[in-house]
Write a structure and sequence with these properties.
4% strand, mainly alpha, 59% helix
Length: 162
């Protein structure tokens, strides 16, 4: 199991989070190469904002899944992915090669890398909040339901031996 960003506690739903991350990568590849791309608002360089957000999202997502020492690998990988997709767009005939898109992709990945530590362990906190909150009740000895505090909210009190 891969350790969460804090390198202390593993993500219990790592496989789910990884699948979502790779689905995001697939979506970026598909949207970059489709013959009918998403129409962006009619603002100057609006598509560049979309490129920035896409690669920022990819990097932040994968930064949640892998220890900080690997973040630079994902940053470089996403930059290279953006460059490769732009080169392919220039070859397919129905898309355009643009250096500005490459720059926006790279800046999104780099800014996410720089901010990854500030985002903390978002996925880990989601797991703790929602998985522990799902343990709201359990059965007692008579088969009846009893309320149980989520483990993350309980504090162990010292035992009184007197």
């Amino acid at each position: 199991m891969t350790l969460a960003n804090n390198e202390q506690q593993p993500l219990r739903l790592y496989v789910l989070w990884a699948l979502i991350g790779w689905a995001l990568v697939g979506a970026v590849i598909y949207l970059s190469l489709t013959s009918s791309p998403i129409q962006t608002p009619e603002i100057k360089n609006g598509d560049k904002v979309g490129h920035f957000i896409a690669y920022f999202t990819l990097m932040i997502w994968f930064a949640q899944l892998y220890r900080r020492g690997l973040h630079w690998v994902f940053t470089v990988t996403f930059i290279l992915l953006g460059v490769a997709l732009e080169i392919i767009q220039g070859q397919v005939g129905y898309r355009m090669f643009q250096y500005g898109d490459m720059l926006a992709n790279g800046l999104g990945a780099v800014f996410a890398w720089m901010l990854a530590a500030w985002f903390g362990d978002v996925l880990l906190h989601l797991e703790q909040r929602f998985l522990n909150a799902s343990a709201v009740c359990s059965s007692d000895a008579d088969g009846g339901a009893t309320a149980v505090e989520p483990p993350i909210l309980t504090q162990q009190q010292p035992k009184d031996n007197g």
